[in-house]
Write a structure and sequence with these properties.
By secondary structure, the protein is an alpha/beta fold. Helices cover 30% and strands 21% of the residues. The protein folds into two domains: 2-276, Rossmann fold (3-Layer(aba) Sandwich); 295-385, Alpha-Beta Plaits. The longest helix is centred in the first third of the chain and has 14 residues, at 14-27. The protein is globular and about 55 Å long. The mean pLDDT is 92. It binds iron/sulfur cluster (2 copies). One iron/sulfur cluster (SF4) binds at residues 317, 334-336, 338-339, 346, 351-357.
């Protein structure tokens, strides 16, 4: 039976974080189960873009500091790595993200080594959606242990992002866009994620759910004080529990459906042993989902027929010319070149609704709107979508 630890943690105070993580690890069998002195441990953070810690878009810098200190106290060498999404002048913005997120400072002051996945070389692994191999960042295969540090967030394309989705950053640089093109729907994207999990031996998942992101995540939502840390060796079990905390089931989240189909872990709450401060997933009251989805289509007892109708009329990205600063990051990041570089008009015949444009825009100029006014009204009446 898979085990998920849920611990309360009020804030990012370093002593509180270290103590809470230590208790959580003890409940999973203790550090001796995972590490030994002299090992190299890679912390795979969520560094989606150049966002500061209080944006709730990235794994919080103090969360990473706490893990780094604990691992170094155990005699380990610590690497911190990821690859950001999007493109600035044709280059993934990972180096900038490392600075803005505070991770550069953590590495410098705590004696860890940064691994910018865009610059470390790649290893080919098997892809189920392509005849060619998929290339993943080399440090993932050089470390003795990989610890996944996802952030609890909503996602305007996949509805939720956590332990399973966080490994998408193992694909370096602009190749991420290529896999969005090859896997244009969320079930197919789930296959890509399952391939990554099959190739990378992640030993432990520790979720930063202290300040989560609600609403239009993964970058344009609003912080939500959920005050939780989740730990597990099973990424799907962790996500099933975290999704339940925000009122969703695995069936609501296609990438997790694919993960379940591929046997990535346990998806059924009745088969997950929840320990720590809770024996069942605590509910995060008032947590907002992305505007693009509606509560009527989700959760236990959701209306599947209505879900199908809404599926056909989901909100699509539109660029606000008023807010747009013409940086063209969205244009360069679009996997199917659907955004006009001058007018910023979107060619919906080409658009695969990956929401990368929404994710990478740092000025929140990419809005999600429904064409159908009735559906827009239904959505507005849903209190969980008014973020
Ligand atoms: S929508 Fe955002 S990312 Fe795209 S060009 Fe305008 S400001 Fe840049
Ligand atoms: S326009 Fe936006 S949502 Fe559509 S394919 Fe391009 S990046 Fe993805």
């Amino acid at each position: 039976m898979s085990k998920v630890v849920i611990k309360d943690c009020r804030d990012y105070r370093i002593d509180r974080l270290m103590e809470t993580i230590e208790i959580g690890i003890d409940l999973l069998g203790g550090w001796n189960k995972f590490i030994a002195p002299g090992m190299t441990v890679l912390l795979k953070v969520n560094l989606i873009g150049p966002k500061p810690p209080d944006s709730a878009a990235v794994t919080h810098v103090e969360f990473v500091r706490a893990l780094t200190r604990i691992l170094k106290d155990h005699g380990c060498t610590v690497w911190i790595g990821d690859s950001s999404g999007g493109a600035i002048a044709g280059i993934a913005p990972t180096a900038r993200s490392l600075k803005v997120s505070g991770l550069q400072e953590v590495a410098d002051s705590e004696g860890a080594l940064l691994k910018n996945f865009d610059k470390e070389g790649v290893i080919p692994v098997k892809s189920t959606i392509d005849t060619k191999p998929m290339y993943l960042a080399k440090p993932l295969f050089e470390a003795d242990l990989v610890i996944n540090l996802p952030k609890l967030k909503t996602h305007s394309a996949s509805m939720y992002t956590g332990a399973v989705k966080n490994l998408y950053g193992c694909i370096p640089g602009l190749r991420k866009a290529e896999y969005h093109r090859l896997a244009p729907d969320q079930l197919a994207l789930g296959q890509v994620l399952a391939d990554i999990h099959a190739a990378v031996n992640v030993g432990l998942h520790v979720m930063d759910g202290i300040t989560a992101m609600q609403g239009d995540g993964p970058t344009a939502g609003k912080p939500y004080r959920s005050e939780k840390i989740l730990l597990s060796t099973d990424p799907l079990a962790l996500d099933a529990v975290a999704a339940s905390m925000i009122g969703l089931t695995v069936d609501d989240i296609p990438i997790l459906v694919s993960a379940r189909d591929r046997g990535l872990g346990e998806a059924s709450l009745s088969q997950i042993n929840i320990v720590g401060d809770y024996t069942a997933p605590p509910q995060l009251a008032g947590f907002k989902l992305p505007k693009r989805f509606t509560r009527l289509a989700t959760g236990r007892g959701g209306h599947r027929l209505l879900a199908k109708i809404i599926e056909l009329m989901k909100a699509r990205p539109r660029i606000s010319t008023r807010l747009c600063r013409s940086c063209n990051i969205c244009v360069q990041s679009c996997p199917v070149q659907a955004i006009h570089p001058e007018t910023k008009a979107i060619n919906y015949a080409a658009c695969i609704e990956c929401m990368c444009c929404h994710e990478v825009c740092m000025y929140q100029a990419v809005k999600l709107r429904r064409d159908n006014p009735v559906m827009e009204l239904i959505a507005r009446l849903d209190p969980r979508m008014q973020s």
